[in-house]
């Protein structure tokens, strides 16, 4: 009997260790060609046992007041069916997000430091970003190509101070010398982080929240508000 119990305990310990040393893999894809937009976020963890796929097949700009209408599709392990929805992103919603971020910063001790510490454990295993651009005039196309190169270099340079790159990023900007305007961009990014780092980050976040007087109440208020909005959106879609 003791041998069986020891074997079960050893198996459980090995299984727990395997979970701790596993990685959370995130694959982000974004494509834009003229008015066609597509984005996808794929999350894979526990050696691929759990898969979450989040797709944005359509991004439509209405006007300055209504903002963007984003169509979303989400499924888990490709077996629970798709959850479809529409998200409207406008100036009002951005202001609301900014307000919630300020509340989280007040409710958490040194939130910026926590974000930097968490990002330091993230590894980008692949970053490919290609762009084709032209505005119908050779001189202005050449100038714009230089600007795009500069913007990409600044973004990648900033990320390199926050996140570790396992491979050199592959950046490409191709000028299009045709008479018609052309803009096409494609981003492919793969990153990973150990589950151990995710768990420790969660513990550190809870500790920092508890160090602020009333911090957990402010976080709880934000979570409840998010749940309320989600339920309201579901009712609107079903109705």
Q: What key phrases describe this protein's structure?
A:
alpha+beta; 6 helices; 239 residues; 9 strands; 9-stranded mixed β-sheet
List the helices and strands and how they pair.
Layout: H1 2-20, E1 23-33, E2 36-45, E3 50-63, E4 67-76, E5 83-89, H2 91-107, H3 111-119, E6 123-135, H4 138-162, E7 164-165, E8 170-175, E9 181-194, H5 195-210, H6 215-238
Parallel strand pairs: 6-7, 6-8
Antiparallel strand pairs: 1-2, 1-9, 2-3, 3-4, 4-5, 6-9
Helix pairs in contact: 2-6, 3-5
Structure characterization notes:
- The chain has 239 residues and is an alpha+beta fold.
- The chain contains six helices and nine strands.
- Strands 1, 2, 3, 4, 5, 6, 7, 8 and 9 form a nine-stranded mixed β-sheet that branches.
- Helix 2 runs antiparallel to helix 6 and helix 3 packs antiparallel against helix 5.
- It starts with a helix and ends with a helix.
Brief digest:
The protein has helices at 2-20, 91-107, 111-119, 138-162, 195-210, 215-238, and strands at residues 23-33, 36-45, 50-63, 67-76, 83-89, 123-135, 164-165, 170-175, 181-194. It is α+β, with helices and mostly antiparallel strands and 239 residues long. The chain is globular and about 80 Å long.
Order of helices and strands: HEEEEEHHEHEEEHH
The main β sheet shows up as: 9 strands, mixed
Q: What gyration radius follows from the Cα positions, in whole Å?
A: 22 Å
Supply the helix-strand structural class: alpha+beta
Helix content: 40-55%
* Shape estimate: globular
Unreliable residue stretches = none
Q: Helical stretch count?
A: 6
